[in-house]
Automatic annotation (TrEMBL):
<feature type="repeat" description="TPR">
    <location>
        <begin position="179"/>
        <end position="212"/>
    </location>
</feature>
<dbReference type="InterPro" id="IPR034706">
    <property type="entry name" value="CpoB"/>
</dbReference>
<keyword id="KW-0802">TPR repeat</keyword>
<dbReference type="Pfam" id="PF13525">
    <property type="entry name" value="YfiO"/>
</dbReference>
<dbReference type="InterPro" id="IPR014162">
    <property type="entry name" value="CpoB_C"/>
</dbReference>
<keyword id="KW-0175">Coiled coil</keyword>
<dbReference type="InterPro" id="IPR039565">
    <property type="entry name" value="BamD-like"/>
</dbReference>
<feature type="domain" description="Outer membrane lipoprotein BamD-like">
    <location>
        <begin position="141"/>
        <end position="262"/>
    </location>
</feature>
<protein>
    <submittedName>
        <fullName>Tol-pal system protein YbgF</fullName>
    </submittedName>
</protein>
<feature type="coiled-coil region">
    <location>
        <begin position="26"/>
        <end position="60"/>
    </location>
</feature>
<feature type="region of interest" description="Disordered">
    <location>
        <begin position="118"/>
        <end position="138"/>
    </location>
</feature>
<dbReference type="GO" id="GO:0051301">
    <property type="term" value="P:cell division"/>
</dbReference>
<dbReference type="InterPro" id="IPR019734">
    <property type="entry name" value="TPR_rpt"/>
</dbReference>
<dbReference type="InterPro" id="IPR011990">
    <property type="entry name" value="TPR-like_helical_dom_sf"/>
</dbReference>
<keyword id="KW-0732">Signal</keyword>
Amino acid sequence: MKKIKIALTGIIASVFLSGCVTTDEFQQMKADIARLYVENNQLKNEISDLKTRVDKMSSDLNTAVALKEGQLTLLAQTQDYVKELQLLKGRFEENSFQNERKFKELSDRISELQAKLTQPTTSTTKEEQQVTKSTQETLKNPKSIYDSAHIDMKNKNFASARQKFQEIIKNYPDFELLPNSYFWIGETYYNEKKYEDAILAYEEFLKKYPKHDKAPGALLKEGMAFLELKDKKTAKVVFERVIERYPQSKEAEIAQQKVAEILKSQNSGKKTTTKKTKTKTNR
């Protein structure tokens, strides 16, 4: 605009200074003025286009800044998640290590019992052989044998009951109460205070039927048997397995109580040892 004004001023000034204008000069002036108007319009369009581009660039810049801020926020959140994940991973690995160690101890303990006892569930005395023979002669179906075994359990004839449950396992693999027979064999040993045999019988039942409704009870009784053997360390591991595997069961509640009792007794033992040490030191 300034260029056009300067040009017009120069033309007008030259007209006044010269005092007269020829036809050619006047036509030239008109052409110059028209050209200047055209250039002015082109300049306006260029300015408008430039302003549009600047506005777009400004908008893009604001968007880029917002995206950058969002990326920084997301990066910070991701870093927090990574830290949390690492903590969880560490806890998981620690718990897995502890569980593997406990289960290995339990497995080793059971292996010791298996090595100590030779065929605990199949060895028979002469009395038990006579019971088996009598059972085979008088009972012809697994339900009758099973019912008879429970009558023996009620009368505390545990050896006789065990032989009948073993007879079912041996000869009636499709019997619907076969899993129960495995469980009750463990019960016969437990009631006879043959705790090592009971542990192996419960373990055999659990390996075959880990999801059976008697599984929580079998695992709990296995822990109780270890307690009876004065093996509190292994008993605690077994009780913790009850809590882990069957958390909603009544057996889990009992197992929690037993774990608390074991920990309490262990702490009491430590306090007693500390007191004895102090007494010896004072002397």
